[in-house]
Specification:
single chain; mainly alpha; two-stranded antiparallel ribbon; 62% helix; flat; Mediatior_Med7_sf; transcription regulation; transcription coregulator activity; nucleus; transcription
């Protein structure tokens, strides 16, 4: 038994000994057993699966998945992992539940600020009294009562515990606030990135518009050059014909 407890608390425990029972054959027998059970008068496993082979001696119902709904129905729903108990609904215990002296309201719907301000003022006053008591001469050895500074230290400890417990109760609120702030930062970042992309797109669109205008001007200029070249060819063609005729006559 001690070995089992030690194995459960091991950070890297071995698989449970019954994991070898989860074979394909046994799981098929379990499915067949659950299918035949409502129609069979005798719920005994061997009678229901009398036509099957290699039916195990142990009950096949051990292979059923755990009923989580049974756990949730319990008032303090919990489960155990590696020997440690974990609650389904995580709840931060209050200072009173931990055995401390709680000086602020336990109900979270009640405004705790007046109580916390009173605790803070009491802490400052007690600290001032502590400095005064420390400067006082020590009690004689025959004194039976506790020194004054010890009472102040104990009370400061109680006040500090209340401040820390109240701060821990505000952690969910702080977590929600941090999450909201992070989401807003991500939203602002995406808006800035989108704005930058729009600016880049506008710049590229303007450059493309300039290039398109330049291409149109170049195409018009090329058309004018082609027309001028055609006109030059037409103008030069009679001279070429006369020159060719004169050359032929001289040769003849």
């Amino acid at each position: 038994m001690d070995d089992d407890d030690g194995e459960l608390r091991n950070p890297f425990p071995s698989p449970p000994s019954h994991y070898t029972k989860y074979t394909s054959h046994n799981l098929a027998l379990l499915a067949l057993y659950n299918q035949r059970l409502p129609e069979h008068p005798n719920p005994v496993q061997h009678h229901v699966l009398s036509d099957q082979t290699d039916v195990p001696e142990w009950p096949l119902t051990q292979l059923e998945k755990p009923r989580i709904d049974w756990i949730l129905e319990e008032p303090d729903a919990s489960y155990e992992v590696f020997g440690d108990r974990w609650f389904v609904k995580d709840k931060i215990p209050s200072l009173a539940e931990l055995g401390g002296n709680q000086l602020y309201p336990a109900d979270p719907s009640v405004d705790r600020r007046p109580a916390l301000l009173s605790i803070l003022r009491s802490l400052l006053v007690t600290y001032s009294s502590l400095t005064s008591s420390v400067l006082a001469p020590p009690l004689p050895m025959s004194a039976t009562e506790a020194p004054e500074w010890q009472r102040h230290v104990e009370w400061i400890t109680v006040l500090g515990q209340n401040l820390m417990a109240a701060a821990n109760d505000l952690r969910p609120v702080q977590a929600r606030g941090n999450l909201e702030l992070m989401m807003r930062r991500q939203l602002d970042l995406r808006r800035d990135e989108t704005k930058t992309l729009h600016v880049k797109c506008d710049v590229l669109e303007a450059k493309l518009k300039d290039l398109r205008s330049s291409a149109q001007v170049i195409s018009k200029f090329g058309s004018l050059l082609d027309k001028d070249a055609d006109m030059a060819d037409l103008t030069a063609s009679p001279h070429i014909s006369a020159l060719s005729f004169a050359t032929l006559m001289s040769v003849g």
